[in-house]
Amino acid sequence: MQQQHERVMAEKAIAIDQFIEKYFAQMNLPEGSAIQELKRSMHYSATNGGKRFRPVLSLLVADLLNSNPERVMPFAVAVEMIHTYSLIHDDLPCMDNDDLRRGSPTNHKVFGEDFALLAGDALLTEAFLLIAEGYSGQGALAVQLTRLLSEAAGIRGMVGGQAIDLRAGLKTFTNDELTHLHSLKTGALIRVAVEGAALIAEAQPNEVLALRNFGSGLGLAFQIADDILDHGEKDQDVRSFTGILGMEDTKSLLREISQKALQELHLVSKEAPMLEHLISYNQSRQV
Q: Is residue 179 within 8 Å of residue 250, measured between CB atoms?
């Protein structure tokens, strides 16, 4: 069964890759060699591997709600574009100063810091163009998706969480502070990948709320599992769940958060094997 679940996720990731390749091939851009160089920089990071977790999550929600995944695809890829831009900027010397991303040179190592910065900027804005064009016939939906994604990506979400992290220095966070940080920095885009797909699939308001809560729980559970896996690495315990709570209490917290996410999911459907698989897979990552 696990192999079947992994195959489904791999197939969806391939469909997302194909959409991204087609999108870049058909981009209508101004003339100029600099524009083409910037496009290459964007494309380099947008197609540099990864499991496509966030957009795959959107497509799985579409399946759960019996919605055509093609309707969700523009939004799913918009979320992935924003995630990609964040990785480009995170790798810059002024941030994490990383030389490699997924085994390949980071964007600024290939295209320079200036074009890496611009590539991130361009991917961020392209995400909203993709939503505007993908849902042009559904004005109210396009507005809803733009609002949700703006909140999740900006100062109210991912960027706000990054700001908290940058200014924290060597501060040891409390459990509540760390939960707040990760709900913004990493959890917001995971949550919106679920919530936006639910809106596109025309879920009922109570279903949208339950799936939003599921996405929030799933995002936090993934961060907790990461902390368990990374325990003991340099600077990891300064602000990690294992550093604050200890290993056993962190594992207990992971089980608790995962169970709550599962309960929210079951408010929508008692049978959601693919999304249930994500929860169980994440818990097994600690072993």
A: no
Identity at 246, one-letter amino acid code: G
Flag whether pLDDT at 287 surpasses 70: no
Q: What 3-state DSSP class applies to 76?
A: helix
Q: Give the pTM.
A: 0.94
Query: Residue 228 — φ and ψ, nearest 5°?
Result: -65, -45
- Domain residue limits, the chain: 2-201
Q: Hey, which CATH number is domain 2-201, 1.10.150.130, 3.90.1150.10, 3.10.180.10, 1.10.600.10?
A: 1.10.600.10
pLDDT attached to residue 234: 52
Q: What are phi and psi of 231, to 5 degrees?
A: -55, 130
Cα–Cα distance for residue pair 192/72, rounded to 1 Å: 12
| Chain segment 128-138, per-residue pLDDT in tens | 999 999 999 99
Rounded Cα distance between 94 and 84, Å, is 17
